[in-house]
Amino acid sequence: MAWIDRLRAGLKKTRSGLTEPLGRILTGRKTLTDEEIEQLEEVLIQGDVGTGLAIELVEQLSDETRRSDDRDLLDSLADGIRDRLAGCERPFALRDDGGPTVVLVAGVNGTGKTTTIAKIAAHLREQTPDLPITFAAADTFRAAAIDQLGIWADRIGADLIKHRPGGDPSAVAFDAVDHAIRTGGALFIDTAGRLQTKHNLMEELKKIERTVGKKLGRGSDERLLVLDATTGQNGISQAERFHDAIDLTGIVLTKLDGTAKGGGVLAIWDALRIPLMFVGVGEAADDLHAFSAEEFVEALFTT
Question: What pLDDT, in 10s, does the model give residues 68-84?
Fold first, then answer.
């Protein structure tokens, strides 16, 4: 199945909870009453677009109805959303200077960090079969996390750097960077799932990044936060805390197929201005893909 079809299928709940109610209000309309404006704002807010952005989108749409009476309003809203997502994309790219590309992956438990690492690595392996790939099991607090990463390393053909459960995560990162300097390619550092409100765990995350910098002579190339789309507005709070800690370079949004509130994609970009690099709509490797605003809007507004 082509990616756009996977994305369209993954956004089925969001179309049902967001796009279809919008269509029922806007279809056949050339102007908007105050009541319809209020209904539009309510639907967008319920879809996790965020109050401020919902109001702005509807105001823009209302202004357009006063300037023109020959434009389909649902198409106009789609264009407005597309415009709001301008600049949100940034492709994942490997370094071209021979040095290792180091990727630090963070997020709270249950977002799918380890699986996300495996999926991105699998894409890299498909594109460049001989690319050296290393996994660092820096989630030392859970033995199961180390084992899970090891299983993925075996499947993909990646080297695994690990220490005993309960060991120092920064020491794992140090050894992994040392290994990656020798082998090149890509290094993915899997960190412990942590609530953004746990100060000591966030400090440990900062320490891992400092360790990478000391060993590598520069910071990690990517610092990705994996967010569960079903958490809604709480995801923005998570991202703000992680961004303060390690200066995020990108966001991976998983489980978009599990929510009717896909409007959170807009809210995240509008609030944070951190690039949306990947989006996930299922468990298979092909269900994680580089984010495209154009594809997202197309899948959101077409069946």
Answer: 666 789 999 999 999 99
